[in-house]
Design goal:
This protein is an all-alpha fold. The chain is built from 4 helices and no strands.
């Protein structure tokens, strides 16, 4: 008699992270840039959603402050990530700049979500 094998904990098939899968398949800087661009697009849509939810729950004076802060944050993110384009030489600078956009946007989404928790 053959014993049935027990499922191994933590090995359940999880859907692959599209960004991670894209980067794993990338063979050129251009491929990596396309992966990053797609990821930034996803994050921008998520940020817009969370921003809209935050605006909806805030008092009018706080809504104005958030709108001003968001406008300044977008400018800051662009300026901050431009530093990475010139920090190193070669095509890796472009990838570092793209990763900066991803990282900064993910943090902003997390920060924005805290407004929904209050």
């Amino acid at each position: 008699m053959v014993a049935a094998s027990a499922p191994t904990i933590g090995t359940a098939a999880r859907p692959a992270n599209p960004y991670t899968a894209c980067m794993a398949k990338a063979v050129s800087t251009k491929d990596m840039q396309q992966c990053q661009s797609a990821k930034v697009g996803v994050l921008e849509r998520r940020l817009a959603t969370v921003y809209g939810q935050a605006v909806a729950v805030l008092a009018p004076d706080q809504q104005r402050k958030l709108r001003d802060a968001q406008r300044h944050w977008v400018e800051f993110r662009q300026a901050d990530c431009r530093v990475f384009y010139g920090n190193t030489s070669g095509t890796i600078a472009i990838i570092e700049g793209g990763q900066c956009m991803i990282d900064r946007t993910q943090v902003r989404i997390q920060n924005m979500q805290t407004l929904l928790e209050h």
